[in-house]
Write a sequence for this structure.
């Protein structure tokens, strides 16, 4: 056999051997395996139950201290959502402000049944559904204090602002009014306590949620006033929280909530719980005929 023919045979055998090895290797590879991790949507559909954490936050979510019965705007909204989707709503765990996100991330419940403010800090940890409506932040002073013709007058070194330490209110006070002094209460204090500081003269103004301020004005007439005159210095969307990366679950909930809002249910619930004007806000949602 000539050398040239021998080398040709060796090369042909090598190629054939490589091709055979490739085919064998491909046959030995297991088929692509889909992720075995069950999504919240999959689990909810399998068991027919949405497990909810809840934060007691009147008038949105109320718990009777004597009977343990629930009521409130978002409680009834969640019950209606359960009926429209054919799912049972289970209120699994009462949580606090400092624990609601950790419980959601660890899977103790599927969503929060109390709406909370949408902000960037929380959005790093969890996802939000579409806002139900909006909360405003007001600035409240004593009725007889004539120094504040506008909100801009608060930014003065002679002004003391009552806030709660480490909260959004405290952040706004320092950001918007850097010249003013602050009187910071601990988070063990109720929101209404900052308004008491103003009424008793320990502070000049309080920065607080419009709902809380409006309720205080209603229950203590002639004491305080909102110097924002119906135009809050901030608006925050009120929305339910869900875990990150749960697209199918979030899509189902958003669709159901949009249907309920368009039915007028949310407006009816706000009326039922006697939400006063200036407490919450909404964007204009008017329908018109397509020409």
């Amino acid at each position: 056999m000539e050398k040239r023919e021998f080398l040709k045979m060796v090369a042909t055998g090598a190629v054939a051997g490589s091709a055979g090895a490739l085919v064998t290797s491909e046959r030995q590879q297991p088929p692509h395996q889909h992720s075995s991790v069950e999504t919240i949507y999959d689990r909810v559909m399998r068991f027919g139950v949405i497990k909810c954490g809840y934060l007691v936050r009147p008038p949105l979510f109320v718990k009777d201290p004597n009977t343990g019965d629930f009521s409130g705007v978002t409680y009834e909204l969640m019950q209606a959502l359960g009926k429209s989707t054919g799912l049972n709503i289970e209120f699994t765990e009462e949580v606090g402000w400092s624990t609601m996100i950790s419980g959601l991330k660890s899977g103790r419940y599927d969503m929060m049944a109390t709406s909370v403010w949408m902000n960037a800090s929380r959005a790093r940890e969890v996802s939000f559904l579409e806002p139900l409506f909006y909360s405003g932040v007001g600035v409240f002073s004593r009725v007889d204090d004539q120094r504040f013709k506008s909100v801009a007058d608060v930014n003065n070194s002679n002004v003391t602002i009552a806030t709660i330490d480490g909260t959004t209110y405290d952040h706004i006070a320092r950001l918007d009014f850097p010249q003013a002094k602050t009187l910071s209460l601990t988070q063990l204090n109720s929101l209404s306590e900052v308004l008491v500081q103003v009424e008793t003269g320990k502070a000049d103004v309080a920065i607080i949620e419009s709902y809380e301020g409006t309720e205080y004005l209603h229950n203590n007439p002639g004491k305080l006033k909102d110097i924002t005159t119906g135009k809050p210095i901030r608006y925050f969307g009120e929305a339910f929280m869900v875990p990150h990366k749960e697209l199918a679950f979030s899509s189902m909930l958003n669709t159901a909530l949009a249907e309920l809002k368009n039915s007028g249910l949310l407006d009816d619930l706000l009326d039922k719980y006697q939400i006063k004007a200036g407490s919450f806000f909404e964007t204009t949602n008017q329908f018109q005929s397509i020409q």
